[in-house]
Design brief:
This protein is α+β, with helices and mostly antiparallel strands. About 25% of the residues are buried. The longest helix is centred in the last third of the chain and has 21 residues. It has one domain: Pnp Oxidase, Chain A, CATH 2.30.110.10. The protein starts with a strand and ends in a 20-residue tail after the last helix. Strands 1, 2, 3, 4, 5, 6, 7 and 8 form an eight-stranded antiparallel β-sheet that branches.
């Protein structure tokens, strides 16, 4: 059954390292709740109370808009093979844009991904495990390369144009500051 921890243990960190997908949830008091699946090699545990993950260009930019207004974030990992477990990380996050000082250091933790747009730096205040007995077994057969191919074809200028057209506002009209943030328009 559910157990609570103040930080990640070594076994939690090992579990996270084996996962091929995680889910991110954010919301403001007035916005829709956003739940987004994340794949790729895009998450790093920096300490028992700190994780960072690289966000690539997508159809929306809800997480960025939400976190800039209300920094609450939840990450969820599910075991789709082996013993059943669900691991949730609760905390607060900050958005790091390409123009921010922290970008160079943190982006170097990840393989270069076309369309990389933000890094989320999350401080954990609660770690929870639960049984996951109803989560089905699923087999991992490989990563989809479609997003990387799409972003690669667009190129850097095409990606920035896409951000301008599709990634500046959340569904609820909250700004993401993707083009306005610290040098992005210079």
């Amino acid at each position: 059954m559910a157990q609570r921890y103040p930080e990640l243990s070594d076994s939690h960190i090992q579990f996270i390292a084996k996962q091929k997908i995680f889910f991110v949830s954010t919301a403001t008091a007035e916005s829709r709740v956003n739940v987004s699946p994340k794949g790729m090699d895009a998450l790093r545990v920096l300490s028992p109370r700190r994780v960072v993950w690289l966000n690539v260009t997508g159809s929306g930019n809800e997480t960025s808009a939400h976190v800039q207004h209300d920094p609450r974030m939840t990450l969820m990992f599910c075991a789709f093979e082996g013993p059943p477990v669900i691991l949730r990380l609760y905390g607060t996050a900050t958005v790091i844009h390409q123009g921010d000082v922290e970008w160079s250091e943190l982006s170097s933790l990840f393989p270069p991904l076309p369309g990389a747009r933000q890094i989320f730096d999350m401080t954990l205040d609660l770690v929870q495990t639960s049984c996951g007995m109803a989560v089905p077994y699923l087999s991992y057969t490989g990563d989809r390369e479609l997003l990387n191919e799409w972003a690669g074809k667009k190129g850097e200028e095409g990606i920035r144009q896409y951000w301008k057209e599709k990634n500046q506002l959340s569904l609820d009209g909250l700004p993401t500051n993707i083009l306005d943030h610290k040098g992005e328009n210079s």
